[in-house]
Amino acid sequence: MATDFIRVFKRKLNSAFYVALRLINYYPYYSYLHGRGQKINLTPEYELDFNAQEKDFLKACAASYNYFESDYALGHRQKELSIYKLNDVTFFSHTGVIMINQKLIVESGLSVDRLTRSKAFRDFTVMLPHRFKEGNYTTIQHSHWADNNISLWFIDSLPRAYIIANTIKEPVTLLMWKGAHAYQKHTLEFLLKDYPHIKIKYINKHHKIRIANFYLPSFVTSSFSGYLPPDVSSWLREKIWDSYTIERNNPKQRIYVSRSKARFRRVINEPELYPVLEKYGFKIVWSEDLDYKQQIQTFYDAEAIISPHGAGLTNLLFSEKCSVMEFHPAKIMKARYMLLCKGLNFDYTPIIGSSGDEIEDFSIPIPEVEKWLQEKYGA
Length: 379
Known about the structure:
The chain has twelve helices and 17 strands. With 379 residues, the chain is an alpha/beta fold. The model has no long low-confidence stretch (mean pLDDT 90).
């Protein structure tokens, strides 16, 4: 009871604090690059084509999520990959967002929505001031959401290293938070080990740094999307497979990734699914029981992956070639991994379950799963 009281009290105090900040116009304004600095283009933009089934699923996702920006059935534009060389920027080390002329730059936060929910925009934080007058700096960092979320790390953050590696030819220092998890440090270092002119500098997360020369790489992905251009995903996959010394001649397996140990979005009738999966030779795994190299190896070895929606499906990026079935609660459906599969040219099938409860636990129509398995692997 005392813990609940303290939690509620802190929440109310925090809300009152933000109301006070609004009243005194504390929040900074934001702006766009609008041609500032030197822009270097790497690849042109292009449109993705979807078939009728993909469009139907994308529309259903947008309707369930009540967010227009996720309705990629209306058209998905893969934006150009580019980098801006900018002068005199202020870098917020806890988010990776930059400020120019006292205005936060939207492109450094991916979108207005992400920017205005970032710590750089809304947190009253005493930041230690620094100034980097000499040298060139850059970052792939993307706000506090990527601190320990493999989806936001491998899909939103790490692909930006592709742009940096393929555009910047002069010596440059990449700023990264000191407290990053081991798999984040390892994968970043793996990608950049063949580029000696790019140095990684691990810094504290509470600095406000004035930087004279800064490279801002664009985000490869769009909001709510997991789509990666094939050149980017191929570069990333090959380097990480090699660096983790992934075995490439193991027998292929069929994998079910369970969320039964997760705190939410669990499949309620999962025990009834097990006999069906066993009949078709599926192995049940729990991502939290595997270290990161084991996760990559498991997905590389998979010819088929079945899983409820969750960040663990980010590891599809490291499957060699597989068919994917993803379970969604009807109340909130997200197309992130369908779009990731689109970029990887993987066969993808969504299964829509019940609406789900307050923590998104839901049940699935097992006959639909069995029908898919019969069509794919025979009775």
